[in-house]
Specification:
Blueprint: H1 2-43, H2 47-51, E1 53-57, E2 60-63, E3 67-74, H3 84-98, E4 106-113, H4 117-129, H5 133-152, E5 156-167, H6 172-190, E6 194-196, H7 199-210
Antiparallel strand pairs: 1-2, 2-3, 3-5, 3-6, 4-5
Helix pairs in contact: 3-6, 4-5
Length: about 230
């Protein structure tokens, strides 16, 4: 009888150990899955969080981290068309005006597909007014070629912006508006054509910064509208 107790005891210990091991492995697996799910949920961010934009109103962009930003768009020009004297005058004026600035700013240069809409419209008008089938075919081919260039992103143009910001507080909007108007005035005095951009253009700029292939020729309607069917 005593000889059977030891083998039975060993078998009982082995079975108990296997059961305990299975319970432990199952618990560890469930815990790992739970932790992975929590990590995944915690790391999920919306597009709004990713671009740090809380709201856009008029000339102001409000960020998630408590700043208000405004932008000035500077029209590009071909400097090679200026004479040496004109270049020196432009440089001197710009240096003089910018030396008076005390607050920080950023200069942004972004690329966008070339807006071919005016060219396509001109070609389409020529096609309508032409009675020559060969000319119409040439114009049709030209429209297809320039459209392919624009959509492929091979032909781009540069856009330039000045970015000014203030920490969000009671007087931030008024202070920022004054600063952006002062900078626009200084740029104009320096000989640059510029505009303070508003909500639709700010949205386009955000799209250009985060998606360089953004087709700016498409409208960005930010207002709520209700379509009506005519019958």
């Amino acid at each position: 009888m005593k000889e059977l107790i030891f083998p039975i005891l060993m078998i009982f210990i082995c079975i108990t150990g296997m059961i305990a091991l299975q319970i432990y492995l199952k618990y560890s697996k469930n815990k790992a899955v739970s932790n992975a799910r929590k990590t995944s949920e915690g790391s999920k961010k919306s597009a709004q969080d990713f671009v740090n934009v809380k709201d856009i109103q008029d000339i102001f962009l409000y960020t998630m981290d408590g700043y208000i930003i405004s932008y000035i768009k500077v029209q590009s020009f071909e400097k090679d068309l200026l004479s040496e004297t004109e270049k020196k005058v432009l440089t001197k004026k710009s240096t003089q005006e910018f030396s008076e600035l005390e607050e920080g700013f950023k200069f942004i240069a972004v690329s966008r597909p070339v807006d071919i809409t005016p060219l396509v419209i001109d070609y389409a008008d020529l096609m309508k007014s032409s009675s020559n089938p060969i000319q119409k075919q040439i114009l049709r081919n030209e429209i297809a070629v320039v459209s392919d260039f624009s959509l492929s992103g091979e032909v781009v143009q540069r856009e330039f912006y000045y970015m000014i910001w203030e920490k969000e507080n009671e007087d931030a909007e008024a202070d920022l508006k004054k600063r952006v108007n002062d900078l626009q005035e200084k740029l104009s005095k320096s000989g640059f054509k510029c505009d303070i951009i508003k909500k639709p253009d700010i949205i386009r700029l955000c799209n250009l910064v985060n998606n360089p292939a953004f087709a700016t020729i498409e409208g960005t309607d930010t207002e709520v509208t209700f379509p009506f069917l005519e019958y």
